[in-house]
Specification:
Shape of chain B: globular
Order of helices and strands of chain A: HEEEHHEHHHHHHHHH
Number of helices of chain B: 49
Number of domains of chain B: 5
Strand content of chain A: 5-15%
Largest sheet of chain B: 7 strands, mixed
Number of strands of chain B: 39
Structural class of chain B: alpha/beta
Strand order of the largest sheet of chain A: 1-2-3-4
Largest interface: A-B, 112 and 149 residues
Strand content of chain B: 15-25%
Oligomer: heterodimer
Distance between the termini of chain A: 45 Å
Number of strands of chain A: 4
Number of helices of chain A: 12
Radius of gyration of chain A: 26 Å
Distance between the termini of chain B: 24 Å
Number of domains of chain A: 2
Largest sheet of chain A: 4 strands, antiparallel
Helix content of chain A: 40-55%
Chain lengths: 286, 1189
């Protein structure tokens, strides 16, 4: 992974980090960066409005860190959800594990922005003796959060007071209400057409062909694994199976081994079968 | 039709019903897989129809292919993939018997007709056609019907994006993998309506339904998925079924290797929008177009899950059917049966049994599966597997400044290494694996585990460095590593583990298998210094051959007049030795290796990696051969040309795996690579000259050659003579216009001069060039006796044999090869030469078989098309030239054609290239060494032959004239003569031009056939060509025919084209990279003024008989701005008035330029006898009708 992306490569993770850096803590945050990189952040828990974390410092016992960021009010969330419900793309992209680029637009009408805008929004404490606030431990937590948001964009929304389940349920409800009594032709999402138009005007050929040269030059090599059954050796027998006295570990491994070997053998036969006229598929040979 | 495909994830999987309170809440990073490939098509015929008015919010696509057409195209796709459609939809269970179950592996589901909404670029409310469709429509529709769409959709009106309802068929992912992975990897470039492709199913598919780029994109994605399956990059998992009511077993891809992830990204970035601008019709909100990585992931997830379960289900069915037939169950089945019985009580068993079912739903209450779900999650988490291609999890401990490192120490080698002859049994050796902490930034800083355990605090100081929490780090890493390597686990029973002891077998597995995995996790591994040498293959065990031919004595290599003819089948004497690297081992030592059942062995103190099975089979293989003495020159050549590394061959591996372990060893045949061949002088000389190619000694130009050979032609001649001397077949594949014909004639003359022509040479060519050959032979090699075996008066049986014996060259055609096979095969030919050898490109065709069955001392193939890139053609030609050299066609497909065509296997193609290169000489016009030898403008005449129809028409016209001219005089006589001349020129061009009846154009004119052949070669080389004709009618016939047969756009400029359109045509021909490669011009409209220097070929289809006019036309291409050599071809139909006038002009050129310059009037002044002489058809060059193809 490239160095500059180490705390979250997606735009929303970057946006989070830069929001913090813009609060004027740059130099102090810098020390946290190294700390986070070394893996000293042992645990991070995100709840609505609050982050709890443990960071290994220079003392034996890890420091406890608490960060409070005021969650958005219910009315703010309702406002934001209404905006989002108008565009199905919001839900679609959130569910695909991505943060819509225009997510901040949904918070335009709210009193509080999605990303913390001023120092007053954030209240933090650390059990370390360092008097600086934020200390490097807190800073390390902030950076690690970037990675966490990368993995699950909903965490950011959770921090601002809204769980994924609640948000999606709210969106669904609002969508349902909006289409009630209106069974006419489906609503054309103007975004899709506009998006397409911009794309085809930029590169007319790519609509039909994409980057055919690039696709063709992706080299495929259907072959036996470098370490046959390596994955099963690595995984071993799952705990829940091993605990069960009736079930035998060797049975589990034997079945898995058989599954993997079968797939390799059949995949190779499929990949190199000769379909010239009159040739049978010997994929089913014993 | 252009075939398109888009991936439709199941609505629930994409937009997702939110799993409510269910215990099986979805992980948003890994949704349940599901979806289908939506295949649809655009029809060129419908594109030509008038567009109808459009109704409703989502009007239908105006030129889409109908469901019936799609089903037909699908059936061809199924045929291409060697599958069959399952029409009755019933499932074949194991009760149906083993054979029925096996056969069902070939069944694919009949697809369902379905509809989807697509967002397409549009103009004026109608979707615009894809560029591929426009190209295809140009071939099948008259230009007028396409006016609306010409020139890259540049038509008026702003571009918009409109929703369109499209009819298509839905194909499940399992079938997608089976159908699409057989498609060639790069089949988008080679358009064209090549009649030969009709014989293979993919050719038929392409003719009926050309896959678009978006369709082929999915083929590429399918291949990646197939690779991940073969390489076991997947794990079992459990998730909620789409409607959330049930749990289901699922297989998920693993994205751990950086290479897999980067290929995924490259493929995602390359996805055409067309692949994803699609929504199910029932979907109520049309969201943004899904990002390409989401769609690609859904496709790979779904296709892998469905295919893996399908494969396992098939395997289970087959085994059970076998077991039922045999009445006994093997261990694996018993295990599964036991688990199935326990399924009700143990959800874990239900899960593992569902992993091999086509329907993966687990029939238990979801709540009961909760423990399994959590268990599987923990299981995966513990191994820190990466299941998303977008965020690859880094290694365990890379984030901290130090890591655990393992160092493997080989057993003490003190005593044994003293004995140089000894193969040491290492079975009882003890190896040690030491543990360390290692600084991440300086691998040389190693803290031994013992030192770590001594440290009681949380901080260890070592060489000025600080290691925080060293105990925890070391323990955590050892725990992680123990998952991969159980030997470590045992050492963890002690309080302070410092190392563990390994057997040789364990050490081998650590080196080969475990260490790469540990490194991937971010742990350090230090291997013994010799391992790099062993794994890098420099210290390989192999076989060395010593080869001796009996040619060395009786055939002095340097003496040109002695011809050491021997074939590839000649046997050679040989001896073999085992070798380690460069060192030779005794056979006893070698045999001992096979007895040691360990993978790492010390030979003379050096560690070597061996596979005892390989050694054993290598011994068996060579000893068996030695008894039979059946090593041939071919074997030796193959081994030395293909290079030593023969064994890592994907095709062979696949075959071995497909057939089963017991055949495995046989597939690897020798088991060990041949690492060196020591040859006697004669063979060594031959192979080194073959491989380097350049060192062939140059011969003088034959004395009897009537003309002058250019330097590169001398080289070609010498090369041909070199291969001839060794009896090896040669393929001369020079670009068109470089003079393959005269190089061959020179070769024949040389042989004749040396008295080596003890039998005649058979020269086979297409009917259209018989006349050409006849004339060229007479011109350049007047001393050669030539017999044309062609036409209805040709000889048969004994007459033929007698006549042939008196000749040097017998000229015949491909059409006659199978028909006259008995006649032709009674002679043992001096040589058989195939001109335009692409005529045998289909190995199964009758004429190819006949060509291969002829006996000859030497074989030559002449072709202007790059054979290297067309694999079945390459095999067919090579098998004609050097029978058996590339193995059987089936072997060849398995080893080369399939890996190269389907996967662009670089290793296979470079091996094939080095095997064939010595037998193919191909020079291109652009080669600087050739250019300096060539004149800037080169003119040649082409003498096409008549078809039978042309003969009949021509003779009727001449008879009619002679009858009418008797009583006529003055103006009337002149009129008759001029109109006859016109009619005869029309007949020469094409019967349809003479008859004005718009009838079919195929196979009726020798001239047209020849023109198409030559143009195909010219544009195949990437060049552009001008074709001049004086007849507008012929011009438009040419345009229709050529655009169809060549499969490209063809422009036609004639008097009726307005100035603006002319300018545009010229501009596109000159500057547009995708412009038409062929430009037809009427001599009057296009013969002057224009600048067409992009063309390097000029064809004069019919003659003006005025050199000045013709030269002026030629100069459209040959003028300032031309950077290439220009080839000019003037067509003169053999034996007709065209040839007679051409001769007269050549003879009288100097004398009466002014007379001829006046046009055709001088002909009208001729006497009736002169006219008869001029017009009457010379029957010697008559054509045999082409056999129906």
């Amino acid at each position: 992974m490239a160095k500059k992306d180490e705390f979250g490569g997606t735009w929303w993770a970057k946006r989070w980090t830069s929001a913090l850096e813009r609060l004027g803590w740059s130099s102090r945050l810098q020390r946290g960066r190294t700390y986070a990189r070394q893996g000293n952040v042992l645990e991070v828990k995100v709840r609505p409005g609050r982050i709890d974390a443990r960071v290994q410092g220079s003392r034996k016992r890890p420091y406890r860190i608490t960060i409070n960021i005021d969650p958005l009010s219910d009315s703010d969330w309702d406002e934001a959800a209404s905006t989002m419900a108008e565009h199905a793309s919001f839900a679609a992209r959130l569910l695909a594990g991505e943060m819509p680029e225009n997510i901040e637009d949904a918070f335009d009408r709210c009193d509080t922005p999605l990303f913390p805008g001023s120092e007053q929004d954030i209240d933090m404490s650390c059990t370390c003796p360092d008097w600086a606030n934020p200390c490097k431990h807190i800073a390390a937590v902030f950076y690690t959060l970037g990675t966490e948001f990368d993995r699950d964009p909903f965490l950011l929304l959770l921090l601002r007071g809204m769980s994924k389940e609640r948000l999606l349920a709210a969106l669904r409800e609002k969508r349902a209400r909006a289409t009630e009594g209106n069974v006419s032709a489906p609503d054309i999402e103007p975004d899709a057409a506009e998006q397409l138009l911009t794309l085809i005007q930029e590169a007319p050929d790519s609509f039909w062909n994409g980057d055919a040269t690039a696709a063709d030059s992706v080299q495929v090599n259907v072959a036996v694994p470098e370490t046959p059954l390596g994955i099963i050796h690595r995984l071993g027998v799952p705990e829940f199976w091993a605990r069960d006295r009736v079930l035998s570990n060797s049975d589990f491994l034997a079945v898995m081994k058989d599954y993997y070997q079968t797939v390799t053998r059949r995949a190779l036969a499929l990949a190199y079968r000769d379909t010239a006229e009159g040739k049978p598929i010997d994929e089913s040979a014993p | 039709m252009i075939l398109h495909a888009a991936w439709l994830p199941f609505a629930d999987a994409a937009v997702g019903a939110v799993p409510a309170a269910s215990a099986l809440a979805q992980n948003p990073a890994a949704p349940a897989p599901g979806g289908r490939l939506f295949i649809w098509g655009e029809s060129p015929e419908r594109l030509g129809l008038k567009l109808r008015g459009r109704k409703g919010p989502f009007p239908g696509h105006p030129f889409q292919a109908s469901a019936t057409e799609l089903m037909q195209a699908f059936a061809l796709l199924v045929e291409t993939a060697g599958c069959r459609e399952n029409r009755n939809r019933s499932r074949i269970g194991s009760a149906a018997g083993p054979d029925a179950v096996r056969a069902s592996a070939r069944l694919v589901q009949r697809p369902r007709k379905s509809h989807a909404l697509m967002l397409l670029p549009a103009k004026e409310g109608y979707p615009i056609p894809s560029p591929a469709l426009l190209l295809q429509a140009r071939r099948v529709l008259p230009t007028a019907r396409l006016e609306r769409w010409t020139a890259n959709g540049e038509s008026a009106g702003p571009l918009s994006a409109d929703f369109v309802q499209v009819t298509g068929v839905s194909v499940p992912a399992l079938d997608v993998i089976r159908l699409l992975t057989v498609l060639p990897q790069s089949c988008r470039d080679d358009g064209g309506d090549d009649p030969s492709v009709r014989c293979d199913p993919f050719g038929r598919l392409k003719l009926a339904a050309t896959p678009g780029s978006d369709f082929l994109y999915w083929a590429q994605a399918s291949k990646l998925a197939l690779e991940l399956m073969a390489r076991q990059r997947f794990v079992p998992d459990i998730c909620a079924s789409p409607d959330d009511s049930q749990a289901r077993a699922v297989w998920r891809p693993l994205w751990e290797s950086a290479q897999d992830v980067s290929r995924f990204r490259a493929l995602a970035d390359a996805m055409p929008l067309l692949c994803r601008a699609v929504w199910p019709v029932e979907q109520s909100d049309l969201a943004r177009i899904a990002p390409s990585d989401v769609i690609l992931r859904s496709f790979i997830d779904t296709s892998m899950d469905e295919t893996i379960r399908g494969m396992l289900a098939m395997e289970r069915n087959i085994r059970w059917a076998d077991s039922i037939a045999r009445q006994e169950f093997d261990d694996a089945e018993r295990r599964l049966l036991e688990m199935a019985k326990l399924s009700n009580k143990r959800p874990a068993c239900a899960w593992i049994c569902s992993l091999n079912k086509e329907k993966p739903e687990i029939r238990l209450e979801p709540a009961r599966l909760d423990s399994v779900r959590r268990g599987v999650n923990d299981w995966m988490a513990a191994a820190s597997l990466c299941q998303t291609p977008t965020s690859c999890v880094p290694s365990v401990s890379a984030a901290s400044g130090f890591r655990t490192c393992f160092r493997l120490e080989s057993p003490d080698t003190g005593a044994d290494s003293a004995d140089p002859e000894c193969v040491t049994d290492s079975g009882a050796d003890v190896w040690t694996l030491h543990y360390y902490l290692q600084a991440a930034d300086d691998p040389s800083v190693l803290v031994p585990a013992a030192r770590v355990w001594e440290e009681s605090g949380g901080m260890l100081r070592f060489l000025g460095r600080r290691f925080e929490n060293p105990h925890e780090r070391l323990l955590a890493d050892l725990g992680q590593a123990a998952r991969y390597f159980p030997a470590i686990e045992t050492s963890l029973d002690t309080a302070t583990p410092e190392s563990c002891e390994l057997t040789t077998a364990e050490a081998y597995s650590f080196l080969r298998e475990v260490s790469p995995q540990l490194e991937q996790l971010g742990l350090g591994v230090l291997t013994p210094p010799w391992w790099e040498r062993v794994s890098g293959g420099t210290a390989r065990l192999g076989v060395r051959l010593k080869v001796q031919t009996d040619l060395a004595q009786d055939a002095g290599v340097g003496q040109a007049n002695i011809v050491p003819r021997f074939s590839l089948d000649s046997l050679v004497d040989y001896d073999w030795q085992a070798a380690l690297g460069d060192e030779v081992m005794s056979k006893d030592e070698f045999r001992r290796l096979a007895d040691l059942k360990v993978p790492l062995v010390r030979v003379r103190g050096e560690w070597v990696e061996i596979n005892p099975g390989e050694v054993e089979s290598a011994i068996a293989f060579w000893e068996q051969r030695a008894r039979r003495r059946d090593l041939t020159v071919r074997d030796v050549l193959t081994m030395s040309l293909a290079g030593a590394n023969e064994e890592a061959d994907a095709g062979a591996v696949a075959k071995a795996v497909a057939i089963g372990p017991e055949v495995d060893r046989r597939a690897g045949e020798a088991g060990l690579p041949v690492v060196g061949i020591e040859m006697d002088e004669a063979l060594a000389d031959l192979t080194s000259r073959l491989t380097t190619g350049e060192r062939v000694e140059e011969l003088p130009e034959p004395r009897t050659f009537n003309g002058a050979l250019r330097p590169y032609q001398i080289r070609g001649l010498s090369w041909l003579a070199f291969l001839e001397r060794w009896g090896l077949g040669a393929c001369l594949a020079d670009d068109m216009g470089l003079g393959k014909t005269i190089q061959l004639i020179a070769l024949l003359l040389r042989a004749k001069e040396e008295g080596a022509l003890r039998a005649p040479t058979l020269l086979v060519c297409p009917t259209s060039v018989v006349g050409n050959w006849h004339r060229e032979l007479a011109r350049f090699g007047p001393s050669l006796e030539v017999m044309v075996h062609h036409g209805p008066t040709r000889l048969a049986a004994d007459d033929f044999a007698q006549a042939a014996a008196a000749c040097d060259v017998v000229l015949t055609t491909y059409a006659l090869l199978p028909r006259d096979e008995p006649t032709l095969s009674q002679i043992r030919w001096n040589a058989v030469v195939l001109d335009e050898a692409q005529n045998i490109k289909n190995p199964e065709a009758k004429q190819s078989r006949s060509a291969r069955s002829l006996t000859a001392g030497f074989r030559v193939a002449l072709t202007g098309t790059p054979v290297e890139n067309r694999l079945s053609e390459l095999w067919s030609i090579m098998d004609f030239l050097n029978p058996g050299y590339l193995g059987s066609f089936a072997d060849f497909r398995q080893r080369y054609a399939i890996p190269i065509e389907r996967y662009r296997d670089a290793k296979a193609s470079s091996r094939l290239r080095s095997l064939t290169r010595p037998f193919i000489l191909r020079r291109v016009k652009t080669d600087p060494r050739i250019i300096q030898d060539l004149p800037e403008k080169q003119e040649a005449k082409v003498y096409p032959s008549f078809t039978r129809e042309q003969v009949t028409l021509y003779e009727a016209v001449v008879r009619d004239m002679l009858a009418r001219i008797q009583g006529a005089s003055g103006m009337e006589r002149r009129g008759i003569i001029l109109s006859t001349l016109l009619k005869l020129k029309q007949v020469c061009n094409h019967p349809a031009q003479f008859l004005h009846d718009k009838s079919s154009l195929d196979n009726r004119s020798g001239k047209l056939t020849r023109l198409a052949e030559m143009l195909e070669e010219a544009i195949g080389e990437g060049d552009r060509a001008l074709v001049f004709t004086q007849f507008a009618e012929m011009g438009s016939m040419l345009q229709t025919y050529l655009s169809r047969t060549l499969g490209c756009e063809v422009s036609f400029l004639h008097g009726g084209v307005p100035q603006k359109a002319r300018d545009k045509m010229v501009q596109r021909f000159q500057n547009d990279p995708s412009g038409p490669p062929v430009f037809i011009l009427s001599l009057k409209a296009g013969g002057t003024g224009l600048n067409l220097t992009r063309a390097s070929y000029v064809f004069h289809f019919d003659r003006w008989w005025n050199p000045a006019v013709e030269n002026q036309a030629t100069d459209r291409a040959f003028r300032i701005g031309q950077t290439k050599n220009v080839h000019v071809y003037k067509f003169v139909t053999a034996g007709t008035v065209e040839e007679r006038i051409d001769q007269l002009i050549e003879e009288k050129k100097a004398l009466s330029e002014e007379i001829i310059g006046a046009g055709e009037d001088w002909i009208t002044e001729m006497s009736t006898d002169q006219l008869r002489d001029l017009f009457v058809l010379r029957r010697e060059s008559l054509a045999e009708e082409e056999e129906a193809q």
